[in-house]
Amino acid sequence: MSTPEAPAVRLRGLRKVYPGRPPVTAVDGVDLDIADGEFFSMLGPSGSGKTTVLRMIAGFEEPTEGTVELAGADATALPPHRRDVNTVFQDYALFPHMSVQQNVEYGLRVKRVGGAERRRRAGEALEQVRLPHLAGRRPSQLSGGQRQRVALARALVNRPRVLLLDEPLGALDLKLREQMQVELKAIQRDVGITFLFVTHDQEEALTLSDRVAVFNDGRIEQVGPAADVYEHPATAFVAGFVGTSNLLRDTDSQRVTGRTGTVGIRPERLLVLPDGAPVPGGRRSARGTVREVVYAGSVSRVVVALDGGGELIALQQNGSDATTDTAVHRGDPVHLAWRDEHVIDVPADPAVPHEGASNA
Ligand code: ADP
Ligand code: MG
């Protein structure tokens, strides 16, 4: 039974404790609703429980507590093949002795779908991943990105309601990964299937997702639209993990920004001014000394130790006319300038961290 307006995936009180000495609490009370057709990412450091959540949704792992609902129906006790989901893993194992076409057809063959229908649907899936011209090749004759797309076609051919993707781009080099991110987003839009995407790469999550859940130590720290999570991190952990943290704590914050508690300012919101240069109107500023300049091609990261205490990183655009005059070097006295509306008040971390909490 499924209800049309029910979320594609609904998790309630999901926990997973792996037995052992000591037992490992991999997932520690996760509640989540993922809407039909959404591109949703689970973002978090290695070991934060993302894969375990995915495996419980797929049915490969049994929850210790809690429920998994798919399209409004309780699926907690269903075996994997009775769930309307498919998984794409990072180490997508294609059958080396089969052609691309045969690899994609394989799942349908197992389900005893007839030959003509099988070929038609495999052809369709290969079109969706833009590979129909390579149907006759063996996996060894494909590039890494092409192989990844075959793995995707192999999952799409089953027409699942939800596609689970566990760091599927992790094995690709940076350039290819960025290309595939764009492709993946386009494919998801075309097929309209709910994508539940796991990554430890914040940029990837922000680029691809409608919404993001940030995981830390088996729990969700924040759920929301990508821009919200970036602009308004709910905890210091999220501020640090999603983007450069750039936090000022307590007395440092008080002296530099005049605010109490912990605050953050994103590096791209900070202007670095050589000592003595006028501060543009509408901005606050603070004095400091350049501790480090890290060149990164189109931008440099300028680390500034503030006179008032604490340290902030500012991004400086390279190669523009403006920066030839304003380029700064290690040891230079500078001003950092910012607009008050770009100061983020970061809520304090929960007073009682649970056992095994990482000190992020
Ligand atoms: P992530 O995907 O975010 O890297 P995982 O879900 O793989 O995190 O792992 C979460 C925690 O559970 C880690 O501490 C990991 O070592 C542990 N873990 C994962 N799988 C098992 C298992 N089969 N047995 C015991 N511990 C496990
Ligand atoms: Mg994982």
What's the architecture of the largest domain, going by CATH?
3-Layer(aba) Sandwich
Q: What is the residue-averaged pLDDT?
A: 90
Contiguous helical run count = 10
How many structural domains in the coordinates? Answer: 2
Number of strands: 18
CATH H-level homologous superfamily name of the largest domain: P-loop containing nucleotide triphosphate hydrolases
* Rg from Cα: 24 Å
Query: Which fold name corresponds to the CATH topology of the largest domain?
Result: Rossmann fold
| Structural class designation | alpha+beta
Shape: globular
User: Beta-sheet strand percentage?
Assistant: 25-35%
Following the backbone from N to C, one meets helices and strands in this order, namely EEEHEEEHHHEHEHEEHHEHEEEEEHEE
Notable features of this structure?
binds adenosine-5'-diphosphate, globular, 360 residues, binds magnesium ion, 30% strand, OB fold (Dihydrolipoamide Acetyltransferase, E2P), single chain, Rossmann fold, five-stranded antiparallel beta sheet, six-stranded mixed beta sheet, disordered C terminus, alpha+beta
